[in-house]
Amino acid sequence: MTEPEELDERAIARKYGLRELVYPDSEQLKVLAQFLSNAVETGKCGPVPKTAVIAMLDFLQGTLNRQHITKGPSMAQEEFDVLQTPYYLAARIVGKLGREKKEAAAKKGKLYQTTYMTLNQCVDLLRNLLDPGCYWLRMKDVPEGVQEVMEVLWDFAMLYPDARRKGRAM
Known about the structure:
By secondary structure, the protein is an all-alpha fold. The protein has helices spanning 9-15, 26-42, 50-66, 77-108, 115-130, 135-139, 144-166. Helix 2 packs across helix 3 (50-66), helix 2 (26-42) runs antiparallel to helix 7 (144-166) and helix 4 (77-108) packs antiparallel against helix 7. The longest helix has 32 residues, at 77-108. The two termini are 29 Å apart. Mean pLDDT is 81; it is low at 109-113.
């Protein structure tokens, strides 16, 4: 039996009237990761790489939206699975990050949230980075809670491309 053609997520999304996911390219991820690492390590916020932030924001919002689609009667199960894969990968990565940091979280008395909540926090962070009225962005000092979300987003941005290439997550 021959292997079926590789299913193209973008073509399937267009076929069913869904928004296509645009994955941030490697340069955008590098720039965003550098920005986040500097902010986490120093507690200060430098110039925001707006293009990289917009690319990641669009990707995360699209990934979150994929969780809410339902399988239609004319949609093949394989097509549905391809459309759900970005959220599945995100869930696996957030779960891995949670397991790695569980001990540190237990010391702080914090519980890790679900993938949906974690990705929503990342989306809110990215929106704040684009908002010229964001108070902590104007002050250049990053609050502790925001630093934690930046660290999760930084880890996520580093792990997702590799998980996507492998077609699965840890």
